[in-house]
Amino acid sequence: MEIKSLFLDRPKVGKAVDRTTRRVLGRFGAFVRRGARSSIRPRKKVSTPGSPPSSHEGSLKRLIFFGLEPKKRSVVIGPVPFKEGLAPEILEYGGTTTLERDDKKVKAHFRGRPFMGPAFEAEQPKLPSMWRDAIK
Amino acid sequence: MPNPIMDISQAVKQHLEGLSFSQAVQVSRSYRPRVDLAQLDGVIVTVVPRAAEDAMVSRGMFNRDVEIDVAIQAKLTEQTIAEQDALMALVQEIADALRGRKMGDAVWMRQRNDPIYAPEHLDRLEVFTSLITVTYRTVGLNSSGDSGGGGSQ
């Protein structure tokens, strides 16, 4: 999926989603993206598993976007895939991948360093559901 | 048989109805609050029971802590800081009116104002919503017959 086609200022999105929905979802997406970006600290040190990853050269922070899915009327937030490898996915969830070390392929396991999940949780509505849906 | 959840809800409603605040409020009691946005006019206060928890205090007695939600809601007409400040002040008045006050036999235990206002309602509906959750404690007699103690031989 091409994330650019889901940006809020694209005519296709503008036609399919009303202004209020665009505003609400766009604001939520922007807040979650900001939370995720600011949780990724630029530093040389490797982050501890379970906490957001460190930013060594800035790609991960730079490649976090959000866009609206008109059909589902929902917002998609997260890093776009890197040209090579599965770095964003493995950082978020942990997992196993193959690395090249001295022309040899080595299997490496990484523990997760979630950065999107916590940012999403932090922006979740604070009202209990009974009150959230009380006004129709 | 008295029902503390219903009794406390009703007592809270009556207590708030009997007071005057800086803005006129319309108090009601509900189990499933539903408001039509088009008909939301002025400030509405809705009293809804939220939860109850029992705990044994002795062989024959238990405490029942009842949580009551008091929601203050108003449609914003001007969307100015002054309008929202006035509503925040009203929330404080209502919280002050509930704090430390017995409702019938139920003793006030604690209350929290969370959220003090709901951003999602402000954004989506231009409605101010604030939620005060008050916990009251009643004491009851354990009639289950199982007192939990050891019997004598």
In short:
Chain A has 136 residues and is an alpha+beta fold. Chain A has helices at 11-16, 19-39, 59-62, 87-93, 116-122, 129-132, and strands spanning 41-42, 54-55, 64-69, 74-79, 95-101, 104-110.
Structural class of chain B: alpha+beta
Order of helical and strand elements of chain B: HEEEHEHE
> Count the strands of chain A?
6
Termini gap of chain A: 34 Å
CA gyration radius of chain B, whole angstroms? 19 Å
Total count of helical runs of at least 4 residues of chain A = 6
Number of helical stretches of at least 4 residues of chain B: 3
Helical fraction of chain A equals 25-40%
Mean pLDDT of chain B: 89
Give the largest chain-chain interface (CB within 8 Å).
A-B, 14 and 25 residues
Your description of this structure?
- The complex is a heterodimer of chains A (136) and B (153).
- By secondary structure, chain A is of the alpha+beta class.
- Chain A is built from six helices and six strands; from the N terminus they run ααββαββαββαα.
- The radius of gyration of chain A is 18 Å and the shape is globular.
- The two termini of chain B are 36 Å apart.
- The C terminus of chain B is likely disordered.
- The interface between A and B is medium-sized, with 14 and 25 residues.
